[in-house]
Each structure stands twice: as C-alpha cells, then as structure tokens.
Predict the structure of DUF402 domain-containing protein.
Amino acid sequence: MIVRFEEYDNTSLETLTCQARSADSRGAWFTIDPDSALFVPWNADWCVRFYTGDVGGLEVFAQAVKPVRISAELIEFIALDLGVEVEDGAVRLTGEDEFEWNQVAQDYPADLIARAQRAVNEAFERIMLAEYPFDRSAADIVEALRNVQDTSAE
C-alpha cells in the first residue's frame, strides 16, 4: 500500500510504503515500519501517525488533510499544513505559519481553510479527551498491529 502526501499545488511531500493491518467502521490501520503506525479515519479530514519513541509513550502527529484518492493500492492526501503533535506528554499545534503562508501562496479556497481548521480542532479535542484512536499508547498500538496479518492481500 502506498500513502502519498502532496501540497495543494500538487508538489509531492512524502510517500510512505505501508502494510494494511486492519479496518473497521472508524477507519483503517497501517504499519509504516516496526516503530510506527498510521490511522486513516473514514469520515474525517485528518490522519494520524503513532511513533513508539524512546519511552514507548503516546508520540503522535495528527495532520489536517483532504483525501483525494483511496483505493486498494493507494491513498492520496493533500496535506494542509496544520497538525497536532504530542511528544513527551506535551500537546502543541504545528504548521500555523505555513498554513497562513500557503493560504495566500497557493490560493486555498475558503472551504478548504475551514475544513483544515475543523480537522485540526477535532484531532486536538480527541487527543485531549483520550478518545479513539488516541486512547492507547503508541507502543500498544504498534505492538497490536504487528500481530495482525497484512489485510491488503485479501
């Protein structure tokens, strides 16, 4: 499975090769490497990466995105600069300067700006309330996914 992030102007940002691990009514889980996982909710404009980190705590980067294409082989997103990061127990917003700059430089439409702001607010709120998928440590998530057979071959 390939997960590709692009900017609004189609500039490539990052391409990940992931293994599909599980999916349910809330979204799909992927492993990126032995120490990180990706969760893609079905009905949200954000996705989240979980990193086990040195202490095995909840190391998270939730990013506002606009889904572009989802298929059995590829998930494409437009990355919308804004994010929420949890590291060493501290929660902080990220990408605010880039978001403001790109609103002008890439001519973000008003509805895209509103979607990105809602997405990052939703992810932030879920993190603060420890709601799914932020209700377990990254180490627990990654360990559980390691034990799930790759679902992309099914």
User: Anything to note?
Assistant: The domain at 2-144 is CATH 2.40.380.10 (FomD barrel-like fold).
